[in-house]
Amino acid sequence: MKTLIVYAHPEPKSLNGSLKDLAVSTLESAGHEVRVSDLYAMNWKATVDAADYGPHASSPLKVALDSGRAFDAGTLTEDVRAEQEKLLWADTIIFQFPLWWYTMPAILKGWVDRVFTYNFAYGVGEHSDIRYGDRFGEGTLAGRKALLSVTAGGPESHYGPRGINGPIDDLLFPIQHGILYYPGIEVLPPFVLHGVDRMAGDDYADVAKAWEQRLLTLESTEPIAFRRQNFGDYEIPSLHLKGGLEPAGRKGFGLHVR
To answer: Per-residue confidence of the chain (258 residues) as pLDDT tens digits?
Structure first.
């Protein structure tokens, strides 16, 4: 297995840093190849601007079209091209980050904004009466798996079905379905640690054991059963889920899981 770990936490001695290091050692000890993109250590530039696209930047800037032209011409900045090459190299991607303000840290969102360019992560495939591009189960990154390893400060009950923060699966849906599944990546159920701000040092041994178990079973873990866009569940071009396919009473984000 070739695994890319995209890590986003400013403190190397944090719990997130320990989980990243444990992932590297566990996977390498099991014979897998591992690469790490440590975004803070890399001083990753998080904002999209005209400099990303060089001579292919238009005025006014058109992020989608300009990024696509620069991608096609091979003139994206070196840091972006390096991350795209890592994604193409990997068959598994682990995202290690804390849940900040109900989403990923800004530096990680900036990594997505700059690396997932037009003609690479989106804007691919044919549009016709039966297809709406290669998206949601198809695309450039199809054949790969991803796992979110997320730490949250609040207790688990706050993220339950009736919890005030909303269900954790709903909070992660824009990342898992909208960012990862969109370009074709199969998404494994996330590894979420709750109440980490109150975690005692003695608790880490159990956390580490659970994380190692997840890492060593990545290849046999079934992905979340998101519905594929072009395989009959959705009307095209409206992309509405066809009536009667959902279990009784299911609504919201859950409609898009088989």
So the answer is: 999 999 999 999 999 999 999 999 999 999 999 999 999 999 999 999 999 999 999 999 999 999 999 999 999 999 999 999 999 999 999 999 999 999 999 999 999 999 999 999 999 999 888 899 999 999 999 999 999 999 999 999 999 989 999 999 999 999 999 999 999 999 999 999 999 988 777 889 999 999 999 999 999 999 999 999 999 999 999 999 999 998 888 889 999 999
Element of type H or E holding 145:
strand 145-151
Domain count, the chain: 1
Q: Which residues of 177-211 are buried (b: 16+ CB within 10 A; e: fewer)?
A: bebbbbbbbbbbebbbbbebeebeeeeeeebeeeb
What does pTM read for this prediction?
Answer: 0.95
Q: Give the domain extent around 149.
A: 2-223
Does residue 33 belong to any structural domain of this protein?
yes
